[in-house]
Amino acid sequence: MLPIVFRRSLLWAVAFCLACCLGCAGSNLNLPKIGGQANLTADEADTPPSSHGELPPKQAARACMAAAEEMQNTGRAAEAILLYEKARSHDPSLKSVAHHLAVLYDAQGDSTKSLVEYQKALECEPKNANLLSDWGYYHYERKNYAEAETALRKALAIDANHSKAQTNLGLVLAAQGRFDESFAAFSKVVGPAAAHSNLGVLLAKQGRCEEAKQAFHQALALDATLQQPKVFLEYLESHQGPNLGPVVADARLR
Protein backbone atom coordinates (compact mmCIF):
# COMPACT_ATOMS: atom_id res chain seq x y z
CA MET A 1 0.00 0.00 0.00
CA LEU A 2 1.15 3.51 -0.81
CA PRO A 3 1.26 6.05 2.06
CA ILE A 4 -2.00 8.00 2.32
CA VAL A 5 -0.31 11.32 1.62
CA PHE A 6 1.35 9.88 -1.49
CA ARG A 7 -1.90 8.40 -2.77
CA ARG A 8 -3.79 11.65 -2.24
CA SER A 9 -1.08 13.66 -3.98
CA LEU A 10 -1.03 11.29 -6.92
CA LEU A 11 -4.82 11.21 -7.17
CA TRP A 12 -4.90 15.01 -7.23
CA ALA A 13 -2.19 15.05 -9.88
CA VAL A 14 -4.03 12.60 -12.14
CA ALA A 15 -7.29 14.49 -11.76
CA PHE A 16 -5.52 17.76 -12.57
CA CYS A 17 -3.87 16.26 -15.63
CA LEU A 18 -7.14 14.87 -16.94
CA ALA A 19 -8.86 18.20 -16.48
CA CYS A 20 -6.08 20.07 -18.28
CA CYS A 21 -5.82 17.64 -21.17
CA LEU A 22 -9.44 16.76 -21.79
CA GLY A 23 -11.33 19.90 -20.78
CA CYS A 24 -15.05 19.39 -20.48
CA ALA A 25 -14.79 15.80 -21.71
CA GLY A 26 -12.89 15.00 -18.55
CA SER A 27 -16.05 15.37 -16.49
CA ASN A 28 -17.36 12.18 -18.08
CA LEU A 29 -14.24 10.13 -17.32
CA ASN A 30 -13.70 7.79 -14.41
CA LEU A 31 -10.52 8.59 -12.56
CA PRO A 32 -7.87 5.90 -13.01
CA LYS A 33 -7.07 3.49 -10.25
CA ILE A 34 -4.07 4.58 -8.26
CA GLY A 35 -1.39 1.99 -7.77
CA GLY A 36 1.93 3.76 -8.05
CA GLN A 37 2.05 3.66 -11.85
CA ALA A 38 3.27 7.24 -12.06
CA ASN A 39 6.50 6.42 -10.23
CA LEU A 40 6.67 9.74 -8.42
CA THR A 41 9.44 10.23 -5.94
CA ALA A 42 8.49 11.07 -2.37
CA ASP A 43 9.63 14.66 -2.88
CA GLU A 44 7.54 15.01 -6.03
CA ALA A 45 4.49 13.53 -4.35
CA ASP A 46 4.73 16.01 -1.49
CA THR A 47 5.27 19.00 -3.79
CA PRO A 48 2.10 21.12 -3.78
CA PRO A 49 0.77 22.80 -6.89
CA SER A 50 1.77 26.37 -7.55
CA SER A 51 -0.38 29.31 -6.54
CA HIS A 52 -1.86 29.14 -10.07
CA GLY A 53 -2.87 25.49 -9.60
CA GLU A 54 -0.07 24.14 -11.78
CA LEU A 55 2.00 21.07 -10.94
CA PRO A 56 5.79 21.02 -11.28
CA PRO A 57 6.60 19.69 -14.79
CA LYS A 58 8.00 16.29 -13.83
CA GLN A 59 5.16 15.62 -11.42
CA ALA A 60 2.59 16.66 -14.03
CA ALA A 61 4.30 14.42 -16.60
CA ARG A 62 4.14 11.37 -14.37
CA ALA A 63 0.54 12.08 -13.48
CA CYS A 64 -0.31 12.22 -17.17
CA MET A 65 1.58 8.97 -17.74
CA ALA A 66 -0.43 7.21 -15.02
CA ALA A 67 -3.70 8.47 -16.49
CA ALA A 68 -2.60 7.63 -20.05
CA GLU A 69 -1.71 4.05 -19.12
CA GLU A 70 -5.13 3.62 -17.53
CA MET A 71 -6.85 4.97 -20.64
CA GLN A 72 -4.74 2.71 -22.88
CA ASN A 73 -5.44 -0.36 -20.74
CA THR A 74 -9.18 0.26 -20.92
CA GLY A 75 -9.23 0.77 -24.68
CA ARG A 76 -9.65 4.55 -24.72
CA ALA A 77 -7.01 5.25 -27.31
CA ALA A 78 -7.90 8.84 -28.16
CA GLU A 79 -7.74 9.95 -24.52
CA ALA A 80 -4.53 8.00 -24.00
CA ILE A 81 -2.87 9.73 -26.96
CA LEU A 82 -3.76 13.17 -25.62
CA LEU A 83 -2.38 12.30 -22.20
CA TYR A 84 0.88 10.80 -23.49
CA GLU A 85 1.44 13.87 -25.67
CA LYS A 86 0.77 16.08 -22.64
CA ALA A 87 3.21 14.04 -20.54
CA ARG A 88 5.92 14.53 -23.14
CA SER A 89 5.26 18.26 -23.30
CA HIS A 90 5.89 18.43 -19.55
CA ASP A 91 8.96 16.18 -19.61
CA PRO A 92 10.59 15.52 -23.03
CA SER A 93 13.07 13.12 -21.40
CA LEU A 94 10.41 10.42 -20.85
CA LYS A 95 11.60 7.50 -22.96
CA SER A 96 8.55 5.25 -23.05
CA VAL A 97 6.08 7.82 -24.42
CA ALA A 98 7.08 7.34 -28.07
CA HIS A 99 6.59 3.56 -27.86
CA HIS A 100 3.12 3.95 -26.38
CA LEU A 101 2.17 6.52 -29.01
CA ALA A 102 3.53 4.37 -31.84
CA VAL A 103 1.28 1.48 -30.84
CA LEU A 104 -1.75 3.72 -30.28
CA TYR A 105 -1.40 5.64 -33.53
CA ASP A 106 -1.06 2.35 -35.40
CA ALA A 107 -4.21 1.02 -33.74
CA GLN A 108 -5.97 4.23 -34.79
CA GLY A 109 -4.92 3.69 -38.40
CA ASP A 110 -2.46 6.58 -38.52
CA SER A 111 0.51 4.84 -40.07
CA THR A 112 2.48 8.04 -40.65
CA LYS A 113 2.41 9.20 -37.03
CA SER A 114 3.00 5.64 -35.84
CA LEU A 115 6.15 5.37 -37.95
CA VAL A 116 7.46 8.70 -36.64
CA GLU A 117 6.94 7.58 -33.06
CA TYR A 118 8.55 4.17 -33.66
CA GLN A 119 11.62 5.92 -35.08
CA LYS A 120 11.81 8.19 -32.03
CA ALA A 121 11.40 5.23 -29.69
CA LEU A 122 14.09 3.19 -31.43
CA GLU A 123 16.53 6.09 -31.21
CA CYS A 124 15.98 6.23 -27.44
CA GLU A 125 15.78 2.50 -26.72
CA PRO A 126 17.38 0.45 -29.51
CA LYS A 127 17.75 -2.59 -27.24
CA ASN A 128 14.22 -2.70 -25.84
CA ALA A 129 12.86 -6.17 -26.67
CA ASN A 130 9.21 -5.14 -26.19
CA LEU A 131 9.68 -2.23 -28.58
CA LEU A 132 11.46 -4.36 -31.18
CA SER A 133 8.68 -6.96 -30.99
CA ASP A 134 6.02 -4.32 -31.66
CA TRP A 135 8.20 -2.81 -34.41
CA GLY A 136 8.41 -6.22 -36.02
CA TYR A 137 4.64 -6.62 -35.88
CA TYR A 138 4.22 -3.15 -37.40
CA HIS A 139 6.21 -4.36 -40.42
CA TYR A 140 4.38 -7.72 -40.49
CA GLU A 141 1.03 -5.97 -40.85
CA ARG A 142 2.43 -4.10 -43.87
CA LYS A 143 3.92 -7.25 -45.40
CA ASN A 144 7.46 -5.96 -44.95
CA TYR A 145 8.56 -9.42 -43.93
CA ALA A 146 12.34 -8.96 -44.16
CA GLU A 147 12.22 -5.89 -41.91
CA ALA A 148 9.82 -7.64 -39.54
CA GLU A 149 12.05 -10.68 -39.19
CA THR A 150 15.12 -8.52 -38.56
CA ALA A 151 13.39 -6.62 -35.75
CA LEU A 152 12.00 -9.77 -34.14
CA ARG A 153 15.31 -11.61 -34.22
CA LYS A 154 16.92 -8.58 -32.57
CA ALA A 155 14.27 -8.74 -29.86
CA LEU A 156 14.95 -12.44 -29.29
CA ALA A 157 18.70 -11.87 -29.22
CA ILE A 158 18.07 -9.50 -26.31
CA ASP A 159 15.48 -11.74 -24.61
CA ALA A 160 15.39 -15.33 -25.87
CA ASN A 161 12.26 -16.01 -23.80
CA HIS A 162 10.21 -13.11 -25.18
CA SER A 163 7.00 -14.99 -26.00
CA LYS A 164 5.36 -12.15 -27.94
CA ALA A 165 8.39 -11.71 -30.20
CA GLN A 166 8.56 -15.48 -30.72
CA THR A 167 4.88 -15.62 -31.67
CA ASN A 168 5.25 -12.66 -34.00
CA LEU A 169 8.23 -14.38 -35.61
CA GLY A 170 6.07 -17.45 -36.18
CA LEU A 171 3.55 -15.25 -38.00
CA VAL A 172 6.22 -13.66 -40.17
CA LEU A 173 7.80 -16.97 -41.12
CA ALA A 174 4.45 -18.52 -41.99
CA ALA A 175 3.59 -15.51 -44.16
CA GLN A 176 6.75 -16.27 -46.15
CA GLY A 177 5.84 -19.94 -46.54
CA ARG A 178 8.57 -21.07 -44.13
CA PHE A 179 6.23 -23.35 -42.22
CA ASP A 180 8.81 -25.60 -40.56
CA GLU A 181 10.55 -22.57 -39.08
CA SER A 182 7.21 -21.08 -38.11
CA PHE A 183 6.25 -24.29 -36.32
CA ALA A 184 9.53 -24.23 -34.41
CA ALA A 185 8.92 -20.64 -33.33
CA PHE A 186 5.38 -21.34 -32.13
CA SER A 187 6.50 -24.53 -30.36
CA LYS A 188 8.84 -22.55 -28.12
CA VAL A 189 5.85 -20.60 -26.79
CA VAL A 190 2.87 -22.99 -26.76
CA GLY A 191 4.32 -26.46 -27.36
CA PRO A 192 4.06 -28.73 -30.44
CA ALA A 193 0.32 -29.49 -30.36
CA ALA A 194 -0.82 -25.86 -30.18
CA ALA A 195 1.90 -24.92 -32.67
CA HIS A 196 0.35 -27.29 -35.23
CA SER A 197 -3.02 -25.70 -34.51
CA ASN A 198 -1.58 -22.21 -35.02
CA LEU A 199 -0.16 -23.27 -38.37
CA GLY A 200 -3.53 -24.72 -39.30
CA VAL A 201 -5.18 -21.36 -38.61
CA LEU A 202 -2.65 -19.51 -40.77
CA LEU A 203 -2.89 -22.05 -43.58
CA ALA A 204 -6.69 -21.81 -43.50
CA LYS A 205 -6.49 -18.02 -43.71
CA GLN A 206 -4.30 -18.43 -46.80
CA GLY A 207 -6.92 -20.71 -48.35
CA ARG A 208 -4.69 -23.79 -48.10
CA CYS A 209 -7.45 -25.95 -46.67
CA GLU A 210 -6.02 -29.43 -47.14
CA GLU A 211 -2.74 -28.45 -45.52
CA ALA A 212 -4.69 -26.77 -42.73
CA LYS A 213 -6.67 -29.95 -42.10
CA GLN A 214 -3.43 -31.93 -41.89
CA ALA A 215 -2.03 -29.47 -39.34
CA PHE A 216 -5.17 -29.70 -37.23
CA HIS A 217 -5.07 -33.51 -37.31
CA GLN A 218 -1.44 -33.39 -36.18
CA ALA A 219 -2.43 -31.09 -33.33
CA LEU A 220 -5.15 -33.45 -32.15
CA ALA A 221 -2.86 -36.47 -32.45
CA LEU A 222 -0.61 -34.80 -29.87
CA ASP A 223 -3.38 -33.39 -27.67
CA ALA A 224 -6.95 -34.59 -28.23
CA THR A 225 -8.31 -32.06 -25.72
CA LEU A 226 -7.57 -29.02 -27.89
CA GLN A 227 -10.80 -27.35 -28.95
CA GLN A 228 -9.56 -25.02 -31.68
CA PRO A 229 -8.46 -27.72 -34.16
CA LYS A 230 -11.71 -29.64 -33.54
CA VAL A 231 -13.81 -26.59 -34.40
CA PHE A 232 -11.73 -25.80 -37.45
CA LEU A 233 -11.78 -29.33 -38.78
CA GLU A 234 -15.55 -29.50 -38.42
CA TYR A 235 -15.90 -26.19 -40.22
CA LEU A 236 -13.40 -26.90 -43.00
CA GLU A 237 -14.89 -30.31 -43.71
CA SER A 238 -18.37 -28.83 -44.09
CA HIS A 239 -17.43 -25.81 -46.24
CA GLN A 240 -15.89 -25.61 -49.66
CA GLY A 241 -14.42 -22.84 -51.85
CA PRO A 242 -12.21 -19.84 -51.20
CA ASN A 243 -14.68 -18.06 -48.90
CA LEU A 244 -14.09 -19.79 -45.59
CA GLY A 245 -16.33 -17.46 -43.62
CA PRO A 246 -16.07 -15.71 -40.25
CA VAL A 247 -14.76 -18.69 -38.29
CA VAL A 248 -11.48 -18.55 -40.22
CA ALA A 249 -11.34 -14.78 -40.65
CA ASP A 250 -11.74 -14.09 -36.92
CA ALA A 251 -9.53 -16.93 -35.70
CA ARG A 252 -6.94 -16.23 -33.02
CA LEU A 253 -3.70 -18.02 -32.36
CA ARG A 254 -3.00 -19.66 -29.04
Report mean pLDDT, rounded to a whole number.
82
Structural class: mainly alpha
Number of strands: 0
Beta-strand proportion: under 5%
Tally of helical runs: 14
Oligomer: single chain
Helix content: 55-70%
Helix/strand order: HHHHHHHHHHHHHH
Biggest β-sheet strands, sense, barrel? none
Distance between the amino and carboxyl termini: 35 Å
Overall shape: elongated
| Rg on CA atoms, Å | 23 Å
Residue windows where pLDDT falls under 50 for at least 5 positions: 1-16, 18-52, 245-250
Would you kindly provide a written description of the structure presented here, covering whatever features stand out?
The two termini are about 35 Å apart. Helices cover about 70% and strands about 0% of the residues. It has a domain at about 1-40 and about 55-95. The chain has about 250 residues and is mostly helical.
